[in-house]
Each structure stands twice: as structure tokens, then as C-alpha cells.
Amino acid sequence: MEHYWPSVPGGFWFLNAYAKLLEEIPKDRPVVWVEVGVFHGQSLAYLGVEVLNRNLPMTIHAVDNFAGWPGVAQGEELYESFLRNTKPIRDQMPYLAVNASTANPLGPGFSIHRLPSVDAARTFEDSSVDVVWLDADHTEAAVSADIAAWLPKVKPGGWLGGDDWAFSGVRKAVSQHFPKGYLLGEGERLGAPWPYWLVKVEA
Fold first, then answer.
1. CA separation for the pair 16, 20 (Å, rounded)
2. Integer Cα distance of 49 and 89 in angstroms
3. Which of 20-34, 68-82, 140-154 has the highest mean pLDDT?
4. What pLDDT, in 10s, does the model give residues 178-187?
5. What percent of the chain has pLDDT over 70?
6. How far apart are CA 154 and CA 61, in angstroms?
7. What distances in angstroms separate CA 77 from CA 37, 67, 116, 136, one per listed residue?
8. Is the pLDDT of residue 15 over 90?
9. Total-model pTM
10. DSSP code string of the chain
């Protein structure tokens, strides 16, 4: 399938991070990937095409309450936009039950959790997810709550990360939760550096 993500609205500033994670994830077993804060679906359009083209047995979980924020699409308008923009990949990925342990060993799957981040995290078992990407509310309190909610869900050897390191709330929350360190990767936004952050969960 040809990539179509550039035609989708959004702010996919972390393609380098997703490319890195696609290389890092296991290739010999089903993988569970969670994106928290999916907006119009631009980054998941990229991820889904990569999963299909590589024939990866991955379950993609899209988590968002689709509330949006002032000045952008909100509520049903945003949700319907997300559905339209992800339809090409969802048509080729069976819907899987809302349970992170339900990974399809025969091929990819796609599930949508229309919930606030912390509420969605409660539907996943601990140590059941390979990748969690946080790109929702960027206030310090929200990012801290997201990290606390999702970190236990990541398998040993899995990855937790997020976008928009330039936001002070993101920097403060990540630094407080991971004082021993984290990886900062190169992203780009409108021609300017826009780092992302990653933590590999210790085995």
C-alpha cells in the first residue's frame, strides 16, 4: 500500500521515532502498539501502512476521547475525520476486542478506545503492551498522569515515549518520572528541531 499520511491533517512530527520503534519491536511474535492522542489519524495512517507492507502481526490501539481543543475539530467532527482517515488501513485490519492481550498472531488488527487516556489504560493488563506513545494533553499534570497510568502496561523490554518535548509540561513530567535518564530523538516541525522522548522499560 502506498503511504497517504501526508494528505491527512495533523502534526506528525515524530516519524523518526516510529521508524526507530518499528525496527526495535520483536518480529517473531505478535506486538501490541498503543497511541494515546490520535487527533485526525495522521501518524496511525503511517504506522498502519508500514504494518501492512511489512506483514507485521501487530495490534494497533488508538486511544482518544476526541474532545479536541479550541480552534480545531472537536467531538463527532474529529472522530468522523479520524474514521475517514484511517479507513484505508482499518479495512485491511480486523477489529480486535478491546483488550491488549488480544493480539492476532495471524496478522494485524486495529482497535479504537474512545476514552480518556487514564480510563483507557485501565482496560489493559499490566505488562501487556510493547509500545505506548503519548501525544495527548501536554500539561505537566496530564503527562504525569499518563506516564503513571501507562508505564505498568508496558512489557519488560518495551518502549514508552511521546512527542512535543518542546512543551515545558512534557519535559517536567518526563524528567520527574525518569530521573535516571531517557532518550531524546530528532524530530522536525516546520523546519525546526522538535525532539521526541523515549524510555525503554527495563527487563
1. 6
2. 7
3. 140-154
4. 998 999 999 8
5. 93
6. 13
7. 15, 10, 17, 18
8. yes
9. 0.93
10. ----GGGS-S----HHHHHHHHHHS-SSS-EEEEEE--TTSHHHHHHHHHHHHHT--EEEEEE------TTS--HHHHHHHHHHHHHHHHTTS-B--S-TT---TTS-EEEEE-S-HHHHHTTS-TT-EEEEEE-S--SHHHHHHHHHHHGGGEEEEEEEEES-TTSHHHHHHHHHH-TT--EEE--EETTEE--EEEEEPP-
The superfamily in CATH containing domain 5-200 is: Vaccinia Virus protein VP39 (3.40.50.150)
What confidence tier does 107 reach under pLDDT thresholds 50, 70, 90?
Answer: low
